[in-house]
UniProtKB/TrEMBL annotation:
GO terms for cellular component: Golgi cisterna membrane. Gene3D superfamilies: NAD(P)-binding Rossmann-like Domain. Its main location: cytoplasm. Residues 8-17 have a biased composition (Polar residues). This is UDP-glucuronate decarboxylase. Residues 64-361 form the NAD(P)-binding domain. It is found in: Cytoplasm; Golgi apparatus, Golgi stack membrane. GO terms for molecular function: NAD+ binding; UDP-glucuronate decarboxylase activity. The keyword Signal does not apply. It is a single-pass type II membrane protein. Its EC number is 4.1.1.35. Residues 1-21 are annotated as: Disordered.
Amino acid sequence: MSDPIENKSPQNSEHAAQQQQQQLYLRSSITAGIRRNSSVVYPVSKGEYPPVKRLDPMHKKRILVTGGAGFVGSHLVDSLMLLGHDVICLDNFFTGSKTNVTHWIGHPHFELIRHDVVDPILLEVDQIYHLACPASPRHYQSNAVKTLKTSFFGTYNMLGLAKRTKARFLLASTSEIYGSPAVHPQPESYWGNVNPIGPRACYDEGKRVAEALSYSYARQDNVDIRVARIFNCFGPRMNWNDGRVVSNFILQALENKDLTVYGDGKATRCFQYVQDLVDGLIRLMDSDVTEPINLGNPEEYTINEFAEIILKMVGEGKETTAKVVHLPAVEDDPQRRKPDITKAKELLGWEPKVSMLEGLRGTVAYFRSTLDDEH
Ligand SMILES: O=C(O)[C@H]1O[C@H](OP(=O)(O)OP(=O)(O)OC[C@H]2O[C@@H](n3ccc(=O)[nH]c3=O)[C@H](O)[C@@H]2O)[C@H](O)[C@@H](O)[C@@H]1O
């Protein structure tokens, strides 16, 4: 049955025209993608989709999410889709995965493009969330030169796109720009303590130059930028082979293996749940705040404490022989990290809603179910 609302008022004929335009845009951008950039665009299929809001054309935006098939990116894509926007998800699938966004493939508001941000791409967009870059130390150190290229050329290309289209640009920066911090907790005003020649430099310095590029484009070319400094984040859809502490410990505990603590385990981290982070990113994008903003959960744990929490949570009511073992310390591993989120609270009205323990229960359940699927 046709939608009665869609066929009546002038507003709705506008809506229909807009939809037609969107379809045209979709086709033209697909062609542009193939012809100019040799990018692969996935064919669409019919299916059931999560319920998206119907936005009026004035509020509907064309939003590009680079790294959109990654762990954080795919949750961001979900939220933007549910809000009713047109979303272009761009990923080279180095650490991202098609399965993270399969549920949107074929939806008329959604496009999936295989593309590496190191190469330029021509698209028409209103907002760019630039997340593309491996974030796990294991991955970003596995090809340090590529990480630097992604941080520099990837950000340069996306800022160029923002300049051309006058799109608002949000950089996913990181707590790693503070290095091994001499100030605790870390406010945005702290300039950091980074080893520029160490094994983490490809990421830390890469993200620092990405911030420097963003502010240079803002000053020189009036590009409308937002910078989020993201602290440790976890949740469903983390890769099994991610290598970061949350997924490592959960998988080890679920498989009854010893939990590998690097060094003495006295280093601290604060873990935020992915949905909180996504809410913070969207709030920042939709705000007027152009200074960098820390997004993180200030609940602080030592890695030893964290290991014990996981052992207890995963082992609940079950026989387990898993225990904590200490492996050699990792070079340049920051010894403490905790966000000062005063600015996020004051300027965005944002603070985490999900406690670390609550988020962890959901994440353990997710990993448990994926493990069950495997067997
Ligand atoms: O999770 C994140 O969002 C952050 O993860 C990393 O930073 P890092 O804090 O070093 O991440 P992990 O590899 O999870 O390490 C956290 C702590 O746990 C320790 N660890 C990690 C893994 C493990 O198996 N055992 C273990 O003791 C590490 O040595 C470190 O002290 C990235 O570099 C950041 O960009 C990113 O924002």
